[in-house]
Amino acid sequence: MSFSLPGGILADQARIVRMGDRFRGSTDAIDVEQLATFALIFTMLALVLWLATAGAKLLSRFRRTSPTMLFWELCQAHGIHWRMRWQLWLFALASRLDNPARLFVEPQLLNDKVLAAWPVAHRQKIFQLRNEMFS
Fold this sequence. Notes:
The chain is mainly alpha-helical. The protein has 7 helices and no strands. It folds into 2 domains: 21-65; 67-134, no CATH class. It has helices at residues 13-17, 21-24, 32-65, 67-77, 82-94, 112-115, 120-134. The longest helix is centred in the middle third of the chain and has 34 residues, at 32-65.
């Protein structure tokens, strides 16, 4: 765009013509550093989202098929206190059970002979729990 002022009213005509250039901003290319920062942020958010969904799917599958989760859900359904849950869990591990949930369906796993090797304090609590579950 070109225009001229009549009769040389202003000696510095070019300065007036270009005085709005400072408000237009630069016409340089996109700042590579900013672009890299945005790309990194976007990549990190996508990675976190992917990890969260993959973790949720894995946990869901684990909860559906895991004997361990079945054991903890049975403990919760029976209203067993968390300390007693851990004692039963340790008992199942010590008994080398492949599925600790078997303690809830096979009373012979909690018989007197098997429990005789346990400390007296733990044994009494497990006896009490066995009587509550199978009486």
